[in-house]
Design goal:
This protein is of the alpha/beta class. It is about 35% helix and about 15% strand. It has 14 helices and 14 strands. It has a five-stranded mixed β-sheet with strand order 4-10-9-8-7, sandwiched between helices. The chain has a three-stranded antiparallel β-sheet with strand order 11-12-14, with helices on one face. Helix 6 (about 175-180) links the parallel strand 7 (about 160) and strand 8 (about 185-190). Helix 1 (about 30-40) packs antiparallel against helix 10, helix 5 (about 135-150) packs parallel to helix 6 and helix 11 packs parallel to helix 14 (about 370-385). The longest helix is centred in the C-terminal third of the chain and has 17 residues, at about 265-285. It is globular and about 75 Å long. The mean pLDDT is about 95. The structure holds pyridoxal-5'-phosphate (PLP). Pyridoxal-5'-phosphate binds near residues 84, 110, 161 and 213.
Length: about 400
C-alpha cells in the first residue's frame, strides 16, 4: 500500500514487536488511530470554537474537559497542550530565563532542555551524576552553591528529568526540588519517560511544572505533549497577551504568547485525548510492565559477558545494556558484522534496536504482553547460543 508517490505505508508496529527506546510508549491505541482518521484535516478541532476563542476552551470535542482531567490526573492546577515536551521546556525557559542567566540542568539532561535554555539566552550548568548514574539532592545543592560563586546568584530555573534518557534511571526529583526551592528556583519536572507510563503526582513531587511527551509516552501522534503548572506559576507561564497594534489598536484577548495563542489544532490533540482513558488506566499497572521487563533482562543477563548499565533491579522499562563482551565478540567474525544481531532479531519478529549496534544499546519493553516478553527473552538467548556464546541456565 502507498500513501502517495514514494510514500509507503509504514508497517512496523503491525509486523514486529518494537522495542525502540523512544517509540514503545508512543504507539497509538486503536482509539487514537480512529482520531487520526477523523481529525486529520487542518484546524479540525476548530469547528466549534466559540468566544473566548482559545483551544483549551473548546467544549466539542471535549478539549476543555481534557485539560481539567489531565491537571487533576497529574495533581497540578493548570494544563496546556504543547507540540512536544521540548515546547513545554521552551515556554518555561522563555518565561524565566533572560540573557546570561544560569540554568540548572543535569549531566543526564536531554538535548531539548539545552535547546530551550539556549533559545532564551541562558547558560547551562549541569549537576554532575555520581558513579551510580544518579542525580542526588546533595550534588544539586553543591552545584547551586558553585553557580552562586560563579554568577553571584542562584540559577533562575532547574530542569530535572525523573527518568533520564540515557540509562532510564529514576532520580529523586522530590528531594532535588526541595533543595532548589530553598534557593527559590522554580523546578521543571521532565516526565518524557514517565507521564503516561507510570503515576505522576506533581504536588507530591513538589515541582512547579510537569512536562510530558504525547508521542513518547502517551500513545499520541507527534508532535504532542503537555505542560502543567501549579496555581502559583500558571499566571506566569500562561500569562495572557498585552500587545496592541498601533494602527488598528487591535488586542488579542486571552491568547497566551507562550502558547502562540493556540497549540495543537487537530489530529495531535484529539489523538492524545482518544488515548487518554487507556493511558490513565495503564499507568496503574506499571508493575506488570516491570515484570515483563525483568523477564527480558533475566534472559539478557544470562548471556555471559552481558551487563546492565542502568540501575538494577530495573525500575523502568527502558534500559541501557552492555554487550561488548557478548554479542559484540560475534560481530568481529560474523559475515554480517554488527548487523547480524538486528537481522537475527528481525527474523524473529523483533525490531527497534539500532542497526549495527552490538556494544552498548538501549531498548524498551513498554507495552509488551507477557507472551511477547517471553518471546523476546527466548530470542536473545537463542541468538546467543546460535552464535556460540555461553548462556547460564
Ligand atoms: C524524548 C525526550 C524529550 C523530548 O520529548 P519531545 O516530546 O519529543 O519534545 C525530552 N526529554 C527527555 C528526557 C526525553 O527522553
Amino acid at each position: 500500500m502507498r500513501c502517495g508517490q514514494g510514500i509507503e505505508a509504514r508497517q512496523v508496529d503491525e509486523l514486529f514487536i518494537n522495542i525502540d527506546p523512544i517509540q514503545a510508549a508512543g504507539r497509538l491505541t486503536g482509539d487514537a488511530m480512529k482520531a487520526v482518521i477523523a481529525y486529520g484535516d487542518g484546524y479540525s478541532v476548530c469547528d466549534n470554537c466559540r468566544k473566548p476563542n482559545r483551544l483549551d476552551y473548546i467544549a466539542k470535542p471535549p478539549i476543555a474537559e481534557f485539560h481539567k482531567d489531565v491537571a487533576k490526573w497529574l495533581n497540578m492546577d493548570a494544563v496546556r497542550t504543547v507540540p512536544g515536551a521540548r515546547r513545554g521546556f521552551q515556554a518555561v525557559a522563555q518565561t524565566y530565563v533572560k540573557k546570561g542567566d544560569p540554568v540548572l540542568l543535569t549531566s543526564l539532561s536531554h538535548y531539548t532542555e539545552f535547546m530551550a535554555v539556549e533559545g532564551a539566552g541562558g547558560i547551562a550548568r549541569e549537576i554532575p551524576v555520581g558513579d551510580d548514574k544518579r542525580v542526588t539532592p546533595d550534588a544539586a545543592a553543591a552545584k547551586i552553591e558553585e553557580v552562586k560563586r560563579e554568577f553571584g546568584r542562584a540559577p533562575v530555573l532547574a530542569f530535572i528529568d525523573h527518568v533520564d534518557y540515557q540509562y532510564g534511571n529514576i532520580h529523586d526529583v522530590a528531594a532535588i526540588a526541595k533543595v532548589a526551592h530553598q534557593y527559590d528556583i522554580p523546578v521543571v519536572y521532565n516526565g518524557a519517560y514517565t507521564v503516561g507510563v507510570m503515576p505522576v503526582d506533581g504536588k507530591a513531587l513538589g515541582v512547579d511544572f510537569v512536562v510530558g511527551s504525547g508521542h513518547k509516552s502517551m500513545a499520541a501522534p507527534a508532535p504532542s505533549g503537555i505542560l502543567a503548572a501549579t496555581a502559583e506559576r500558571e499566571n506566569e507561564v500562561f500569562r495572557t497577551t498585552a500587545i496592541e497594534g498601533d494602527v488598528t489598536k487591535r488586542r488579542f484577548g486571552i491568547k497566551e504568547p507562550e502558547m502562540m495563542g493556540c497549540t495543537l489544532m487537530g489530529v495531535t490533540l484529539v489523538g492524545m485525548m482518544a488515548s487518554f482513558p487507556h493511558v490513565k488506566e495503564r499507568t496503574l499497572h506499571f508493575d506488570r510492565e516491570l515484570a515483563n521487563h525483568h523477564v527480558v533482562m533475566d534472559a539478557l543477563l544470562s548471556i555471559e559477558g552481558t551487563t546492565c548499565m542502568s540501575e538494577y533491579p530495573r525500575k523502568h522499562t527502558m534500559t541501557r545494556i552492555n554487550t561488548i563482551e557478548s554479542f559484540d565478540t560475534v560481530a568481529e567474525t560474523h559475515k554480517k558484522r554488527g548487523y547480524y544481531l538486528q537481522s537475527a532479531l528481525e527474523e524473529r519478529g523483533i525490531t527497534g534496536i539500532i542497526p549495527g549496534a552490538t556494544k552498548i544499546w538501549k531498548f524498551n519493553t513498554y507495552g509488551t504482553t507477557k507472551k511477547q516478553a517471553e518471546h523476546l527473552a527466548g530470542a536473545f538467548v537463542e541468538i546467543a547460543r546460535e552464535n556460540g556464546l555461553t548462556v547460564r541456565e
